[in-house]
Amino acid sequence: MTSDSTRTIVHLDLDTFFVSVERLHDRSLVGKPVLVGGVGDRGVVASCSYEARQFGVHSAMPMRLARMLCPHAIIKRGDYEQYSHFSHEVTDIIQSSVPVCEKTSIDEFYVDLSGMDRFFGSYKLATELRETIIKKTGLPISLALSTNKTVAKIGTGEAKPNGQKEIQPGTEKNFLAPLSIRKIPMVGEKTYIMLRSMGVEKIKTMQEIPIELMEQVLGQNGIVLWKKANGIDHSPVEPYSEQKSISTECTFEKDTIDVAYLKSMLVRMAETLCFDLRKKTKLTSCITVKIRYADFNTYTMQARIPYTALDRVLIEEAKRLFDKLYQKRMLIRLIGVKFSHLVQGNYQINLFDDTAGEVRLSQAMDRMRKRFGKDAVLRAAGMGINVKSAINPFTGK
């Protein structure tokens, strides 16, 4: 087993991904402040260029405020289908080049190159991988190499834009010390405010705080934060597989040809799976609908879609696939829905004006479900339908 001190972990992050894809299609955007997101007052900023960030603009900011801060910015509505396409292209390049790859979002990856130094310099290999991605896709990408995921991720942030960095074994604490505590993954706004009230601004200060005090103030999270601040992170790179999926299916007590009932069942299934996706902060880019007829012949149909976790998008796609699949007009014994090609991610999908309110509605419904149970809030089309998952979510077993 490889010890933590000899692990070689690379973190790769596509720079301002949505903006970079837009610039591939329109070179006049290069060097200018660009915002990708909803173009109306209800929209939000999904991505922004470094030129726009200089004016205080950041992702997830209301577009209305972003336009006030940077009135000369160029606003693009965005094409999530194109972004998904480039994400898959980069994924294919990485997976074909390294032994272990973990895809944590549509634009972010970890690679484990432990042991590769005896055959080929790890940093040289990482450099060549980055150069290959840039050459084949035209997209800027930054990377950092270290002994663990936390330090590598923070290193990538320091290497941006479109750069790379190597943090040598044994130098992790010194590298982190002068940086802001905001750089540590999992330091959100509330945690930052609490730490600042304690006089903690730089990572060096957190390194010097007794771990017992961190636990007393922040509980178990305090221990995790202290370890990250000290460059300690034992978490492995989890091999990424496009086969990761969640699914549910239902076998009817009595075979049916009631299309209205079948579609209601599909709505309920898709809604349940969407909630599971958002609860795990995951997105899907592939949906499959399954039908088993009374004669036990089974058929499936799938579609690749832009990464999403929105009920409306996935429910409509499930119904569309059912309409294409259900051609025999025979009695149906079983139907099922599966979401696959999952990646970590949340509401980066607020690209269009009409989704900002919808996302807020989904979030409000999810809060009620988490508090009162999955069935606390249902769409009218799926009410009265009981869905039980036949496959354990996210394990495929």
Description:
Helix 4 (80-95) packs antiparallel against helix 5 and helix 10 crosses helix 11. The model is unreliable at 349-354 and 380-397 (pLDDT under 50). This protein has 14 helices and 13 strands. The relative contact order is 0.12. It folds into three domains: 6-168, Alpha-Beta Plaits (2-Layer Sandwich), CATH 3.30.70; 171-239, 5' to 3' exonuclease, C-terminal subdomain (DNA polymerase, domain 1, Orthogonal Bundle); 245-382, Dna Ligase, domain 1 (2-Layer Sandwich). Strands 5-6-1-7-8 form a five-stranded mixed sheet, sandwiched between helices. The protein is of the alpha+beta class and 397 residues long. It is 40% helix and 21% strand. It has helices spanning 17-25, 50-53, 63-69, 80-95, 122-137, 149-159, 172-176, 189-197, 203-208, 211-218, 220-229, 259-279, 311-325, 353-372; strands at 9-14, 34-37, 45-48, 74-76, 100-105, 108-112, 141-146, 164-166, 245-256, 282-293, 298-308, 332-340, 343-344.
User: Structural class, please?
Assistant: alpha+beta
Order of helices and strands: EHEEHHEHEEHEHEHHHHHEHEEHEEH
CATH-scheme architecture of the largest domain: 2-Layer Sandwich
Major beta sheet, specifics?
Answer: 5 strands, mixed
- Biggest sheet strand order reads 5-6-1-7-8
CATH homology superfamily of the largest domain: Reverse transcriptase/Diguanylate cyclase domain
Number of domains: 3
Gyration radius, rounded = 23 Å
CATH topology of the largest domain: Alpha-Beta Plaits
Euclidean distance between termini CA atoms? 28 Å
Overall helicity: 25-40%
Our estimate of the beta-strand percent is 15-25%
